[in-house]
Amino acid sequence: MQRNTKKQNNKLTNEDIKRYTLSFWKFFVGLIILGFLFLISIGLGLFGELPSFRDLENPKSNLSSEIISADGAVLGTYYIQNRSNVTYKELSPALIKALIATEDIRFNSHSGIDFKRTFTIIFYNLIGKKQGASTITQQLALNLFQEEGRARSFSKRFIQKLQEWIIAVRLEQNYTKEEILTMYLNTVDFGAYNTYGIKSAARTYFNTTPGELNPGQAAVLVGMLKGPGIYSPIRYPKNSINRRNTVLDNMRKSGFLTAAEAASFKEKPLGLTFRPNVYGDGIAPYLRAVLKTDIKNIFNQLSITKADGTPYDLDRDGLKIYTTIDSRMQLYAEEAQKTMMKELQVTFNNQYKGRDPFKGLEVLLDRAVKQSDRYRWLKNADQSDEEIKKNFNSPTKMSIFSWKGELDTTMTPMDSIKYNKLMLRNAMMSMEPQTGYVKAWVGGINFTHYKYDQVKMGARQPGSTAKPFTYAVAIDNGYSPCFKVPNAPINVDGWAPKSESTVAGPITLKTALAHSQNWATADVIQRVGAQNVANLIKNMGITTDVPAYPSIALGTFDASVYDMVGAYSTFVNHGVWTQPIYLLRIEDKNGALIYEHTKKVKVVMNDQSAYVMVDMLKGVVEKGSGQRVRWKYKLMNPIGGKTGTSQSNSDAWFIGVTPQLVSGVWTGAEERAIHFSTTALGQGANAALPMFALFMQKVYADKELKYSQGDFELPPGGLQRELDCSKYQYDYPSEDERKIDDRLDF
């Protein structure tokens, strides 16, 4: 009886059930309302500002600026994060399939949040199987708008997750699925080696483009997204292979690959072509460095800014920088340099065997020590002169440049200074004379070790490559190339030049230039006036100081390769100087034009005179100091040029002209006091001309470049000057004069 009463007392009445049910629904609805209000407050930015619609349209990310060649290749990038954007059309289908199969299989059906997957993942996490629940869109939201990255504390991460949901929904409302996939792949971090975004990753790990990735390669890169460190194919190749195979299995399960295809790719090695991103690596590093400085100056001078008035950042704003450089020709120039310099450096070193190359140059070494970073560091550490001297003479581990490759060695800092002082430097530039477009720019021998650009920033004595300027003044003032001058000792206002390998005079101007005769050239500048020669040199684009001294006829002033090539182009371009151009235009990350180069030209010579000068330069190659272009390098098409060697063989030059390309080469040591001991070795014909010839061989062999091997164009109105010296009253130079070879050049 008592037990029945107890059961009745414990039994819930209908009123109790209704009351509990009402309370539950009140609690449940309250939670929903609270959650809804919480989401609203997050959406309003009470827990941190969310991106606006404008922000969604223009998401911020560190985009590298690309330097693009005339033939569409990326020469290099400026970056804080090495990241470049691609479009959806530039992504391989295999990459898209690998990403969706692994990261978000219902990507094409959800609206930013995959609720089914979210609740499934919550269950897995409750039973201890941790898995991620973020969709690709949510991951994109985190990549774009959470600068601090994934929060570590639970409370912050919870709020961050809700923010991601809101942003993900907004992204889905404003972008297509293709755009979201593209943005995601452009923003992901691939870990080490400064690799951000799929374009950089494809280039770094496989030396290819995102559009060329096969399923196996795509699986490796997609696999890295789970953990770019632990799944790095470089550091942990076994982990990378296992993860790749998991991605391939995902693709098979999703129907993107057949079982046979997946098995085939799983059996293959990683197949890496690893190219880590280092600024100095790649082609045209010197041009890229010069270009960066130029662009900053252009933006400052022209007040070029973004729409909001803030300055552009080359390392972050993803600019597209279009240049005139041809990547193929640039590569040919760099290959030609390596071929010539590798042999030339051995010859240069051999001349010092058995003797001290720095005897009498102690002041030079002392100056080099005091200009070094090591010296400044030791001075700032309050070390005494004796302590510093001891440091510079103590062996230490270091990396040095050699033509056989980077060498890790042990030597004293003083020996390192001597080693580098004896390393020959070299530069070359090639341009189209009619357009001014620079097609190749080699500013030095190795940007990592020697960053000073010798094309435009450096200036050295041009030696005999300056002689054509004196003859050009004479020709432009009515002198014939067949006019004869005495080739005998001469004194011009106290200046008495020396002469070697002298051709007996009197000789024609054409012969004098072909054989680079000093006395004859001095006679010509005495006739036409040093001031007139200096004026022409400046009008032809030489920007350095050119004093009106008679000795400028032999190139005693300083000039850059950039200026000299531009000046010689005037001869080929019918007397019209065209400023050498290497920057064409700059676009922002959306393709809007923000800068375009304006061409600069001026007429500095009569077109008849310019053609006569081209003919005289052809004589240098046909019968004078540049003959080895013919007999050694077998370039038999019409080519002109001029060799040059400065005082004490400190500088070797060759400037070659063809109908569509003018190219200049300079070689010398960093210090003018360090040089070849003989003119036979240090002259332009031996230490500069070979690079030009090797370059032109490669250019002509590449039929896609389509550079003509025909003759130079006549002036627009036809040639009105007589070039055949046999038609004049006096005899043409003797057979002995014509047989002078190119063994010496002054």
TrEMBL record:
It catalyses: Preferential cleavage: (Ac)2-L-Lys-D-Ala-|-D-Ala. Also transpeptidation of peptidyl-alanyl moieties that are N-acyl substituents of D-alanine; [GlcNAc-(1->4)-Mur2Ac(oyl-L-Ala-gamma-D-Glu-L-Lys-D-Ala-D-Ala)](n)-di-trans,octa-cis-undecaprenyl diphosphate + beta-D-GlcNAc-(1->4)-Mur2Ac(oyl-L-Ala-gamma-D-Glu-L-Lys-D-Ala-D-Ala)-di-trans,octa-cis-undecaprenyl diphosphate = [GlcNAc-(1->4)-Mur2Ac(oyl-L-Ala-gamma-D-Glu-L-Lys-D-Ala-D-Ala)](n+1)-di-trans,octa-cis-undecaprenyl diphosphate + di-trans,octa-cis-undecaprenyl diphosphate + H(+). Keywords: Carboxypeptidase, Cell membrane, Cell shape, Cell wall biogenesis/degradation, Glycosyltransferase, Hydrolase, Membrane, Multifunctional enzyme, Peptidoglycan synthesis, Protease, Transferase, Transmembrane, Transmembrane helix. Pathway: Cell wall biogenesis; peptidoglycan biosynthesis. The keyword Phosphoprotein does not apply. Pfam families: Transgly (PF00912), Transpeptidase (PF00905). It comes from the Bacteria. GO terms for cellular component: outer membrane-bounded periplasmic space; plasma membrane. The chain crosses the membrane at residues 27-48. Residues 430-660 form the Penicillin-binding protein transpeptidase domain. This is Penicillin-binding protein 1A. Its main location: membrane.
